[in-house]
Amino acid sequence: ILTLDSASHFILTLDSASHFILTLDSASHFILTLDSASHFILTLDSASHVILTLDSPHFILTLDSASHFILTLDSASHFILTLDSASHFILTLNSASHFILTHHCASHFILTLDSASHFILTLDSASHFTLTHNCASHFILTHHCASHFILTLHCASHFIVTLDSASHSILTHHCASHFILTLHCASHFILTLHCASHFILTLNSASNFILTHHCASHFILTLHGASHYILTLHCASHFILTLHCASHFILTLHCASHFILTLHSAFHFILTLHCASHFILTLHCAFHFILTLHCAFHFILT
Asked: Among 4, 78, 225, 302, which is 20 to 30 Å from 104 by CA?
């Protein structure tokens, strides 16, 4: 059923296999509601402001501006990713790993792990960081400059600290936390944990790091620059989020919704849904878009 109230105001209701309602309130403001396997609402408030709500994988993607968005996942991974600018983001995981990663600039971040390892890693600059471990090892590692650091041990943790040069050191811990910390220069280090968290954190430069988690969330976070990163989840959501610049990103979901959202600029994006509705929505500007449906109706709306 296609109801056109005015030149731009229309309602599209499908009672067949797709079962969705597309309501266009103005040239760029519309609401897309699907009642089938995908069950999501797509609300476009302006050319670049979008809200995508899915009930199957249970997450909300809100794009407030070119680079400001919030991704909330309430499923098995349970995390919140908030990107306030090109490099400022907050990653909170409330599942088996229980950690918070807050990135305030190229090298300033806070890593808090509340699981079996129980430690806090705070990097204030390229070489200034604090590592606090409250579990079986009970130690505090404070690094104030390239070669000056303080290591405090409150019990027998059986580890090895090797300082190769003014900034090159290796910290190996074989106790309850079972992790290896390798510092190759002021900001380049590798943190490998084999305990309840089971993740690898590799920092290759001031802002280039790789966080790989093999526990309940099973995701890989790769940051290639101030705003270029890849987030891959292999759990209940199974999606890939790639941000190439402040506003250019690709969101690929391989779960119940099976769609690809590609945003090429503030106005130009492509939404491809391969689920019950099987349609392609291409918006070339504020007014001109193409809606292609490959379902029971098989039509093209331009």
From this structure: 78
